[in-house]
Amino acid sequence: MRVVVTGSRGFIGRNLCTRLCETQSVQLVRFDRSDELAELDRRIAQSDLVVHLAGENRPRDPADFTAGNADLTAHVCEAIRRCGRQVPLIFFSSAQAELDNPYGRSKRAAEHCVEELSGAGNPAVIYRLPGVFGKWCKPDYNSVVATFCYNIARGLDIQITDPSIKLKLAYIDDVVEEIISNFGNFREGLRYADVEPVYTITLGELASQIEAFRNSRQNLVVERVGGGLIRALYATYVSYLPPSSFTYDLTQHADERGTFVEIVRTHDSGQFSFFTSLPSVTRGRHYHHSKSEKFLVVQGTAQFVFRDILTGARHQIVTSSSHPRIVESVPGWAHEITNIGEEEMVVFVWANENYDPDRSDTISSRV
């Protein structure tokens, strides 16, 4: 499939073109501001599908809204008519097409051009997008998410006039997935479609969430980034980190036994850390009432010894990095861990709760 993408160097265009280049069944043809309109005609004439993303949203002269949106879309539609065959068109409008402002009116006029083209049976899909965010969006341009992420990642101030303002947002990966879902599924005539999901968040909530991403490097508390809006915002925030911030230091606690380093804390699923032990060194010798831990030896050989604090029953486990295996501590069982190898031992640890020195649930006890 030969796909022409107008606005290929824009925010959505860059993301879409990157995905299409990963697809062997698509031959990508780009069109951007540096190309002549006559070249656009030639490329459309040889195309199987046109994705029309190009447009104006912040021109210096408001009159350019018409040229960059309505007139350019009219040119695209006319080029498709001249093909003498049906060439499906995906057009990206804006939610502002319903508003009476220069940008909204120009987008609505562009929609009319697509509607006229589809009236003759040519397949067409129109999307009225909310605010779109994600990697490669230009800060201080048309996305407050991009601006906040860029500034906060660099310790710069952000401006919030009204934190209660509600934003409707779509994530770039969802937009790209929606575009690709149309390939091979066109029908005659026009279809208005939506990108899902659309997230709602206030300006104040957005700023607080992005600041929490930044703060996680100090307090080690990772946000709930596994799904939904928080996942998308986190991916976006990290994409704006300068290379100098690709790394950050952790606090290392060292003594005669070895070292201990906290890696990540969560809101409600505990924390991750690791410790090292020199040969013959024993750690632990305590029990917990409620806390549970998972230990994984990633270097060396460990001997775990457990004692039931009520019955005195004992249990011993030997494990090493050559055979990855989780050893789990159990409430009510005192435990100790000894490096019985000849090299430094490294053990990765997950605990089901964050360490609180005022409520450590760690009681010293012989094993």
Strand order of the largest sheet: 2-1-3-4-5-8
Q: What's the count of strands?
A: 20
Helix content: 25-40%
Query: What is the tally of helical segments?
Result: 8
- Strand-pairing-aware structural class: alpha/beta
Number of domains: 2
Low-pLDDT parts are: none
**What name does CATH use for the topology of the largest domain?**
Rossmann fold
Gyration radius, to the nearest Å? Answer: 29 Å
Major β-sheet, in short? 6 strands, parallel
The geometry reads as elongated
Average predicted confidence as pLDDT: 95
In the CATH scheme, the class of the largest domain would be Alpha Beta
* Strand content range: 25-35%
Query: Could you tell me how far the N terminus lies from the C terminus, measured between alpha carbons in angstroms?
Result: 69 Å
Order of helices and strands: EHEHEHEHEEHEHEEHHEEEEEEEEEEE
CATH superfamily of the largest domain: NAD(P)-binding Rossmann-like Domain
What is the second-level CATH architecture of the largest domain? Answer: 3-Layer(aba) Sandwich
Q: What this model shows, in words?
A:
The chain starts with a strand and ends with a strand. The protein has helices at residues 11-21, 37-45, 64-81, 102-118, 144-153, 172-181, 203-219, 228-239; strands at 2-6, 27-31, 49-52, 89-94, 124-129, 131-133, 166-171, 190-193, 199-202, 252-255, 258-265, 271-277, 282-287, 293-299, 301-308, 314-320, 326-328, 333-339, 345-351, 363-364. A six-stranded parallel sheet has the order 2-1-3-4-5-8, sandwiched between helices. 31% of the residues are buried. The chain is elongated and about 85 Å long. It has 367 residues and is α/β, with parallel strands linked by helices. The protein is built from eight helices and 20 strands. The chain folds into two domains: 2-131 and 171-195, NAD(P)-binding Rossmann-like Domain (Rossmann fold, 3-Layer(aba) Sandwich), CATH 3.40.50.720; 252-364, Sandwich (Jelly Rolls), CATH 2.60.120. Helix content is 28%, strand content 30%.
